[in-house]
Predict the structure of Transport permease protein.
Amino acid sequence: MQSIFMHTKMELRLLSRDIIGLFFVFIMPALCFYFFGKLFETQHADDLQYFNQYIPGMIGVVLFTAGFYIVGLQAVIDREKGVYKRLKGTPVRTVLILQAMVIKGLFAVIIGSIEILLIGHLGLDAPLNVNVMQFLLSMLLAASAFIAVGFIVASLFQRVHSALAIGFVMLYPMLFLSGATIPIESLPSSLKAVSVVIPLRYAVHLLQNGWSGRLFTASSIGDASVLFVILAIGIILGRNIFKWDRS
């Protein structure tokens, strides 16, 4: 227990110094959320369904950025600096580092999600008509899947600049083709087809179902299946991050 506490404390200290991660998890989603909320609030002033889709959608963005930038990018940075290589021959157990990284990712998700909820309620006067238990369950699955995405990224990319480039390429489709900011049904047919391959689309829809109390319906089965597949791939590939002899 003491070992996991020490590793988690170290990971959280790294998080406090991670300018890129802090920006993409706590600043960028909040600014986008407030901007789009103000932009469309006059059109949806009395439309509760709008907030039921928009708030969980932006929380989905937080889940993606936390998994990619807080977990995945930091793992790439640590490996590039030779942190994992220096751990070779030490008694440090890989599972402890894995657990500490997951806890750090979940901590970022919780804080970022609370931030979105506060902005929505206090800044946009959005009603928080949420099914708490179902939404938390949907968040847990979606957050786990995107933390797994972070491990996938860390296992595939050896250099920070490569991972950052992929992150920037992925960010805009995730924002605008997932239903997080613009409803899928409002997209042109060509972009709807592209959105099928956007992982965040499935997380956003699952979160929206959880928010409105429709998590345990047939419409959630496909979303949950995709997220479970992503989680499984992340677990399998993520093990490669912790091979101490990698440079």
